[in-house]
Amino acid sequence: MVKLGNLKLTVIGGGSSYTPELMEGIINNQDVLKVSEVWLADVEEGKEKLSIIADLSRRMVKKKKCSIKIFETFDRKEAIKDADYIITQIRVGQLAMRRNDECISIKHGVIGQETTGAGGFMKALRTIPVLLDICRDIEELAPNAWLLNFTNPAGIITEAILKYSQVKVIGLCNNPINFYKKFANSYNVAIDDVSIHFTGINHLIWITDLYIKGKSRIDDILTGKSDSYEAKNIPAFGWDPEFLQSLGAVPCGYHKYYYQTDHILEKQLEQYYRNETRADNVQEIEKELFEVYQKPEIQEKPDILEQRGGAYYSEAAINLILSLHRNSKDVHTLNVRNNGTIKCLPDDVSIEVNCVVESHQITPLQVGDVPAQIRGLLQNVKAYEELTVEAAVYGDKGLAHQALTLHPLVPSAERAKNILDDMLPINKEFLPQFN
Amino acid sequence: MVKLGNLKLTVIGGGSSYTPELMEGIINNQDVLKVSEVWLADVEEGKEKLSIIADLSRRMVKKKKCSIKIFETFDRKEAIKDADYIITQIRVGQLAMRRNDECISIKHGVIGQETTGAGGFMKALRTIPVLLDICRDIEELAPNAWLLNFTNPAGIITEAILKYSQVKVIGLCNNPINFYKKFANSYNVAIDDVSIHFTGINHLIWITDLYIKGKSRIDDILTGKSDSYEAKNIPAFGWDPEFLQSLGAVPCGYHKYYYQTDHILEKQLEQYYRNETRADNVQEIEKELFEVYQKPEIQEKPDILEQRGGAYYSEAAINLILSLHRNSKDVHTLNVRNNGTIKCLPDDVSIEVNCVVESHQITPLQVGDVPAQIRGLLQNVKAYEELTVEAAVYGDKGLAHQALTLHPLVPSAERAKNILDDMLPINKEFLPQFN
Amino acid sequence: MVKLGNLKLTVIGGGSSYTPELMEGIINNQDVLKVSEVWLADVEEGKEKLSIIADLSRRMVKKKKCSIKIFETFDRKEAIKDADYIITQIRVGQLAMRRNDECISIKHGVIGQETTGAGGFMKALRTIPVLLDICRDIEELAPNAWLLNFTNPAGIITEAILKYSQVKVIGLCNNPINFYKKFANSYNVAIDDVSIHFTGINHLIWITDLYIKGKSRIDDILTGKSDSYEAKNIPAFGWDPEFLQSLGAVPCGYHKYYYQTDHILEKQLEQYYRNETRADNVQEIEKELFEVYQKPEIQEKPDILEQRGGAYYSEAAINLILSLHRNSKDVHTLNVRNNGTIKCLPDDVSIEVNCVVESHQITPLQVGDVPAQIRGLLQNVKAYEELTVEAAVYGDKGLAHQALTLHPLVPSAERAKNILDDMLPINKEFLPQFN
Amino acid sequence: MVKLGNLKLTVIGGGSSYTPELMEGIINNQDVLKVSEVWLADVEEGKEKLSIIADLSRRMVKKKKCSIKIFETFDRKEAIKDADYIITQIRVGQLAMRRNDECISIKHGVIGQETTGAGGFMKALRTIPVLLDICRDIEELAPNAWLLNFTNPAGIITEAILKYSQVKVIGLCNNPINFYKKFANSYNVAIDDVSIHFTGINHLIWITDLYIKGKSRIDDILTGKSDSYEAKNIPAFGWDPEFLQSLGAVPCGYHKYYYQTDHILEKQLEQYYRNETRADNVQEIEKELFEVYQKPEIQEKPDILEQRGGAYYSEAAINLILSLHRNSKDVHTLNVRNNGTIKCLPDDVSIEVNCVVESHQITPLQVGDVPAQIRGLLQNVKAYEELTVEAAVYGDKGLAHQALTLHPLVPSAERAKNILDDMLPINKEFLPQFN
Predict the structure, then answer these.
(1) Is the dihedral of CA C219, C224, C228, C230 positive or negative?
(2) Are C1 and C359 in contact, with CB atoms under 8 Å apart?
(3) Backbone angles phi, psi at A214, to 5 degrees
(4) Chains that contact A by 3+ CB pairs under 8 Å?
(5) Is the peptide bond before B411 cis (omega within 30 degrees of 0)?
(6) Residue pair A80/A142 in contact by the 8 Å Cβ criterion
(7) Engineering a disulfide at B215: which of A1, B323, C14, D103 sits with its beta carbon 3.0 to 4.6 angstroms away?
(8) Is residue D88 one of the residues assigned to a domain?
């Protein structure tokens, strides 16, 4: 039901460095949202960060003369109770475990990225049980709340929640909003004049058509005539226009792991031998960020946050909350239950497609059939994701082995086994379901 | 592509008594639509009516100081050439043939309604070839135009166009907009606060859920606690709340032909014996209407038009054109290609569901599975419709017999044959494909 | 697992007048089957009949010098325990209730046949709970047994068992075997030279192709050039060859209820007014049969049994048991779970199609798509059957009303309600689930 | 139609070293088959081989006192005209091109096998146009003939024929018959006592259940308790029982390319560096075989043929022809159109599953759903096959690139491009469709 004002908004993983951006969004839309309480919940290990973030949030609220009350807590249930919107942005095992994920993968010669490949797989095993625990609390204490899940790998996590809880969950990613922003900018039009046909699953979405003010512009991108695509999202290597044309669709940034595997692997191996990982890099940025955050003179989201990556994450979240709140029937690109939308995928899996947002439900726009070029990879990765969810929920090592073997970036069952044999013991404390 | 101003809007069957309402809608939205030309095309037999309508339209335009030019023509191609929007509202064989449809049906003891049963079946056989001819012209002369088809039976006609032409067609009915109006009125809220889940096909749509400001209200209707449903749409007989509750959905008005067959049949037989048909009734109203239309002092849509039925037809059309024109991603309930939206129906049939409207395309919102209560009747009627399209396109009497036999309101193959044997000869001049 | 000899075969409803035919089949195939025990179980009300049948069976065994032991019992569990094959041929409420089913239906002007229409519907409501009880016993006492269900309406009963028990059930009908016999006879070839493509559900199967020695002969039947079809199976009225050709398939005998409704209804009304029902007719035949059965000089299946109808029922059963027993991968036409075989029907419903029989499983041969002529009626009747199963299992009067309303032979929701209101009270003692 | 005697049997690629085995099968079943003519057709380049094979065939026929006439011809049309069964076993480009396929693949670090990976891909591009040309002749000159396609990659070739011709084609492989033989042998039972549930596509079939005399034995294989599996079919590396158990199915030999990629790749690289390929190996065996074949004293299939591989190929073919000829409704494992049999694959693709064989048609047994472990790989490889067919038929280099990129054994789009850039020019004379 549409609720007018007095919203309670809860952030689980409130001590995250992203929170200030979210706070900014809430504050800037306070005339519509009328949030009365923001609860920042985190685990005790994150006490210091949580405290810094909560204090900064309070300064931000005060600066803008808002009446929002900021709460910080280690008691998740208290934060969840009667919340209207709950955002989850947690990292089970922190950056230390992410570092392990990346290093073990690459040590075995396979790409280990936070969301894709063996890295994302391991992160899912650690994270799903925690998220399902949170969902148990939501079912009990805030059954009508919308859960906005940002936690990566967002597609897999959202699928686990869709399959194993009653919570009204929506999976969110900043990939789609970035495409909208980019194309609006390239063609110098308003966001509303951009229409993008997305097909796929989280971090594996293809753009099968692009309309600017009602005119198809996809060929600009496929033929490389436009610079609107390669500029920022895709790193150094670029895409071969001939490849894009026979693909008939624009891949997203994460596709490079599948289509440009050789180069990415080489680059990751280099970094590994130099003992540099993305986890290390992020750790440094985070350190720097929190140093800035705690300065009393900082009363707004500092510009430095933009370097952290995750551009427009909060904007995506705030836009979604606004549509839910206003029951506005807007179109957003979200992770939801398939239910026949993409016909070549099972009904009960998560997909990332355009959806109409109403306050009581999210309805995907029909996609239908998918060309073979896209279908084969999409179905393979989705089957991997389904097995990962089952392995994580039931703590089934055999299914974990099957999942990893099926992953297109893992070249053999043996390699999958070796990675698993290294990863499971080191993650033991985060995998009670496997013991 | 979104076109700014200078729109050419063409009405085929421009001499229809509904046209003044449409004109009113165009004039009232002229600041957004910026229509430069309205072409009213009709057949020579309708010369007098066309002339009356065109003159009235000109008076209406002048009264409102609009700069729209009104053209009347018997040359369809001239009217279609380079049109941006084309509306078809024709009646092949006029009311005389409608009278035959109704009388022959009821003479054989089956319901003969203009859109449902043997009546709608016969109308489809006459109309599909004409509409497909029109589509040939549109393909050639205005390939980018949107065709808004009002011509009944709108679901069957739209399906024929979807299957046998390249034209960008949308089937339109006033059934959905009437539900929106009714519920908005009952709950005293704005139309935008009403969200209705429609499942079905033209003139056979069920409301499977209803939300008012984000809160489900379907139980109000199913339990009869609310008067919001039975009041106007459904005639005398009403619905049994127990039946509605086990159905789990709100039927539309045309469902009474299927669910209340006995009563409707009895009533139609009575009228038949009194030599009164709906066709006769409409003929009288039409006569009266045109008498009013030609009075020079009439410079606006006269109130008497409301008695004609078809409430909000033009509003539905104008709203749709506005959304197409503005590329607004609004949700409308339209007749479109299924493509997996309702999983229990074939991909290539027409369905009537909620859709997102963009200037370049209409995308249905995913419906998924349908409960058995709805499914059985829906699938049966749809198979009848598919066969009717084939019979009409190929002039296949055998398939015509199969179609009619399959119709739930026709009790046996023999009865179907007898009706057909009476109907085909009398319609001979309108059925070149059967000769 | 294939078991060699010492078979225990159980007949629930052993006192049925059909049992002697079954006994004959067992005895004639004893060299392959090596049955050691036949258990005839029945309810105490049927004591006299059971005793007559058991005695006759013993005389038949003795005459042929077989070593099969015949047991009669009212203790169903004793009969089921460790059985290898269990046959159910029961009639809950006996012929008295069948008489009610037929009379109440026709009184309301709708066809009331034992398996089709309101008659079959009511029989299903009475029978499903009893069959599911039997299945509970089989799950406990003979989990590896094959259950051959003859009990009508066989398709609906089998579907209930498939959905609500773990028993290995096969639904059997004599319709398919009669077609094989008839065509073999007409073309003067061996049964093995006849190949029939069946599509449909129990008592609603269409022959979509017919091959005699590898050559398609369906057109002989569709064009009426052959007399092989109409002779016996279809009563007086016959089929119009033009209708058959546009149907593109040969209907089964029960199709006349749907395609020739007017005639059947007229005939049933006549009988009703003469106070003659099929139930009365059967009652008389049964009386006569049992008088013969109890004569000590009768030591074989008496010829008079052939008048009872149900020709080749036992042959179908014995053939199936032989194939199961020998693990012979033969093709039989059986009622099994759809599982995608007929693509336009749900996965979990029962269908009647060609299947390969192995001792451990029955696998349907893929059917795929079905033409619209067949599809519409098939889907409608199947949805009615699904609702009937749910109504019977959950004792849900609302669903019972929806089921009956959806039935193509019931013209309106009101008529359905009136029939139900007459039927439910009179069946009260057999419908504990509704109380 | 079942034809009695006077069969004309045509072998396209009649000069193949496999032909003597086929001849042996024909001769041994001559009492049933009653073949009057065997036509061995080949290209002029194979003149010498063809002559040797034809002469040997004549000696074999004479030795057994058969009345079969042996024809040799370079005129394909003459051979096809009025044939009853046509067998295709051709190798476009001979072993020289196979050598290129293998070497180019491995040079780029990917597995290049004759049927799997880049090797099979290239072979398909060369072979499909030739097979479709043959089909044009069959459509014209022998439209009722059954085409038994042995030509590899048999699944892809069969799919191309199913999609782009009207010929009654069946794809055949010796993989399934080898499993039957092996299990019959291991369990010491007759072949008829073995029942294997196959799911998949050619050279990628999983055994999802195994029954010996009606008892499930799959666990014997999955747990490694039985030696019935690993002994011969799977090379040195063996399978990890834990992997098999979580897979829940027995892979076929070709699965090692996907599941044991590292080892196979290493082994192929070794051979490549030693300048030894499978093509070289086969070339030597062939040379030796033909030396034996031409000895006048050889009047039967020489034992040495067994070393050539392809065990039981001819037996599979002869068994199939026997079932077709006798209209016997036996179950064979064949490559046929999916049509919904495996629900997660498109309707129009080829699959390899159990089928019932009648003289007029082949009908697959319903498979239904497939577990995720199998599904992901199966769907990915099938999408690659679909694209390969399109690329081969339309000579579309872009689709060829997409096909190869999608193949699980090709790690990146760039690698696919490099392989293609090396392969296409060297195959130029065999790829008219690409020029």
Answers:
(1) positive
(2) yes
(3) 80, 5
(4) B, D
(5) no
(6) yes
(7) A1
(8) yes
CA atoms of A246 and D402, how far apart (whole Å): 7
3-state secondary structure of B42: coil
Q: How far apart are CA D279 and CA D122, in angstroms?
A: 14
Chains that touch C (3 or more CB pairs under 8 A): B, D
Q: Which residue has the tokens 């669903």?
A: C399
What is d(CA B12, CA B6) in angstroms, rounded to the nearest whole number? Answer: 19
Residues in chain B: 435
The overall longest dimension of chain D from CA atoms, in Å, is 60
| Residue C187 annotated among the catalytic residues of the structure | no
Residues 6+ apart with CB under 8 A from B365: A356, A363, A364, A365, A366, B331, B341, B353, B354, B355, B356
Residue B96 lies in a domain: yes
- Residue of D187, D254, D313, D384 marked active site: D254
Report the candidate in B171, B248, B240, B238 with the shortest Cα–Cα distance to residue B216: B248
CB contact under 8 A, A359 and B213: yes
| Residue A333 · residue A316 · CB < 8 Å | no
| Number of folded domains that form chain D | 1
Q: Do D372 and A386 touch (CB under 8 A)?
A: yes
User: Per the domain annotation, does B57 fall within a domain?
Assistant: yes
Model-level pTM? 0.95
**Token pair recorded at residue A420:** 């698993």
Distance CA B114, CA B278 (A): 9
Q: List helix spans (H) across A64-174.
A: 76-80, 94-107, 117-141, 154-164
Q: Which of C254, C257, C293, C313 is catalytic?
A: C254
Q: What's the rounded Cα separation, in Å, for the pair D434 and B322?
A: 48
Q: Which residues does residue B88 pair with via DSSP β-bridges, in sequence order?
A: B12, B149
Residue C342 contacts residue B343 (beta carbons within 8 Å)? no
Q: Is residue D247 part of a domain?
A: no
Contact between chains at C415 and B379 (C-beta distance less than 8 A): no
Q: How far apart are CA D90 and CA D290, in angstroms?
A: 17
The H or E element that residue B58 is part of is helix B47-63
The CATH number that applies at residue B24 is 3.40.50.720
Contact B360 A215 (CB under 8 A): yes
List the domain range (segments joined by +) for residue B153.
7-171
DSSP per-residue string spanning C11-64: EETTTSTTHHHHHHHHHHTHHHH-EEEEEEE--GGGHHHHHHHHHHHHHHHHHT
Q: Which of C406, C407, C410, C418 to mutate to test the interface with B (most CBs of B within 10 A)?
A: C406
Helices (H), ranges, C223-335? 230-233, 241-247, 256-259, 261-273, 278-293, 313-326
| Token pair recorded at residue D204 | 């990628």
CATH number, domain of A51, equals 3.90.1820.10
Residue A100 near residue A427, CB atoms below 8 Å: yes
Joined together, the tokens standing for residue D232 give 């011969």
Using a CB-CB distance cutoff of 8 angstroms, which residues of chain D are in contact with residue C359? 211, 213-214
Count CB neighbours of A124 within 10 A. 27
Check: CB of residue D406 under 8 Å from CB of residue D387.
yes
